[in-house]
Amino acid sequence: MTWTSAVLGIVLLVAPAQRAAAQPTATPPPPLTQSLTSLGRQLTRVPNASLSMNFAEWRARVAVSNLQDLARNWPAESPADYRANLARHVVVFEDALTAGDAARLTAFLEALADDLEVKLEHCRQSGGKLGGSVTVQVRTLQDGQEIRNWQVFYLPRMLDALGAGTADRFPQLSSPTQESLVPGRYVMWVRDAASAKTGDKVVVKVGEGKQELVLDLPVPAGASR
């Protein structure tokens, strides 16, 4: 082996490693304790604008405090999807606070409190475990009969309250179709990919300590069977 070929071989070995090191890595979601602390601080910035806003803020604050107690007593790190879900709450809350729209902020706080209370209830009913997701199976029905090949979309209710965010879609067409979701309150609806016909939004609760949940969503009247 010549000196030149030996050097070339080293370069060829090192280059892939350098390229791999240069690839950006996804930042992991922050710990639950960090997101809960951020939510608690944001709640102190809620203005004293109305009784309904103050009551929603109080509900959310109580839920955050109880979730913080559970987080301190739960030694394991919660799954990434659960941590990402709460981190998203913090980002959206900040947007709602800075927008300066009292009506939208009130609607958001009510949805946030509802979502956090569902999370808290799920934790308590599943043995105090933080971070357990639920396998949600959706059937699409019309007059009690299952209708196939519909898309199923979902969006956290607090995002729907703000008219913000892009809905996620179940990975397969119905029916049934299933997805693993973090406990909370969601808005779901169906859509026909061929005609773009959309069903009514339905508010659903995902949690209650369950590992699996079956939901029925209505298909619009007049849709082909």
What key phrases describe this protein's structure?
8 strands, Immunoglobulin-like, 225 residues, globular, alpha+beta, 2 domains, four-stranded antiparallel beta sheet, 20% strand
Structural class determined from secondary elements: alpha+beta
State the order of secondary-structure elements, H for helix, E for strand. Answer: HHHHHEEEHEEEEE
Which quaternary structure do these chains form? single chain
Structure annotation, total helices? 6
Main β sheet profile: 4 strands, mixed
Termini Cα gap: 72 Å
Residue windows where pLDDT falls under 50 for at least 5 positions: 3-17
Q: How many domains would you count in the coordinates? A: 2
Strand content: 15-25%
Any overview of this molecule?
The chain is of the alpha+beta class. The protein folds into 2 domains: 32-125; 134-218, Immunoglobulin-like. Helices cover 47% and strands 20% of the residues. It is built from 6 helices and 8 strands; from the N terminus they run H-H-H-H-H-E-E-E-H-E-E-E-E-E. The chain has helices at 3-22, 32-43, 51-73, 80-99, 102-125, 157-162; strands at 134-142, 145-146, 151-156, 168-169, 177-181, 184-191, 202-206, 212-218. The strands form 2 sheets. Strands 1, 2, 5 and 8 form a 4-stranded mixed sheet that branches. Strands 4-3-6-7 form a 4-stranded antiparallel sheet. A hairpin with a 2-residue loop joins strand 1 (134-142) and strand 2. The longest helix has 24 residues, at 102-125. It is globular. The model is unreliable at 3-17 (pLDDT under 50).
